[in-house]
Amino acid sequence: MTEHEKQYTDRRDQEPEEARTVTDEDRTRRDAPQDEGAQAGTAGEAGGATEAAIPELVIISGMSGAGRSTAAKCLEDLGWFVVDNLPPALIPTMVELGARSQGNVARIAVVVDVRGRRFFDNLRESLADLDTRGVTRRIVFLESSDEALVRRFESVRRPHPLQGDGRIVDGIAAERELLRELRGDADLVIDTSSLNVHELRAKMDAQFAGEEEPELRATVMSFGYKYGLPVDADLVVDCRFLPNPHWVPELRPFTGLNEEVSGYVFNQPGAKEFLDRYAELLQLIATGYRREGKRYVTIAVGCTGGKHRSVAMSEKLAARLAAEGVETVVVHRDMGRE
User: Fold this and answer.
1) Of 180, 141, 178, which is closest to residue 162 (Cα–Cα)?
2) Would you tell me which of 29, 84, 98, 327 could form a disulfide with 214, CB atoms 3.0–4.6 Å apart?
3) d(C-alpha 224, C-alpha 91), whole Å
4) Rounded to an integer, what distance in angstroms lies between the CA atom of residue 311 and that of residue 258?
5) pLDDT (tens digit, 9 = 90+) per residue, 140-177?
């Protein structure tokens, strides 16, 4: 026995028996496996963490100057927890923190834009991570025409985030290319080119203010081809194959909301058949959208001026969709524009 071991043994012999017993019991308790109660408590804590409610998530993105801040403020007013300019890589972490809030953060809205620049490439990886976790997430994309964006940047006298040493239009083009893929993945695209702040808030309220989330929401929009295609349209219907009431003098002053104009349109050969068959096609498309998790669809119905034929067809088509249980909003973009 070494001198060191001998000294240790002498000290042990000099300790009171009670002290040595307590030490041995402590050692036994420390080395023994946890009892069933402790294991059950641990399992219960783990089960509670697993059962934590995952927050609903909306990602707001789109063109700079298209109204992302307005859309975010609208959701904030509706009770959403809003985070502006969050790096995409941190979105799963934000959702996880919301899940730990014991229901206090049930709905999260995250604004993602090109101010993140080098972080933006992480967005697709974060979205894939959210999908594997079963997070209900939607992407809202704010769109606008180049002309409208240039006018807005010039009015506030601020440069575009991506224009660098170039012009505003150069920054817009670079941003549009950067966001092209994200726009294609968006659940809801809103074109704000001709919208003011109040109209944009009304659109956001229409989509998110309801207590119960419907299976599918549709916007049926009439438009005039001479004013351009709606950029946020998912489906486009062309009514120019029908005779134009514009050339009937007594009908020209009225719109497709007038019974005489609507009756004239649907008394034309092929009008009712077109409505019936397209409504059947929309049933098939709506079923597929629901299956793929797409909650919003914009159907653009066009004629030459957006006043007669497209308006009448939009009203009838919206009524068919509503009868099928699809929550439908009708917008007449160009009516009264002439």
Assistant:
1) 178
2) 327
3) 40
4) 10
5) 999 999 999 999 998 888 888 888 888 999 999 989 98
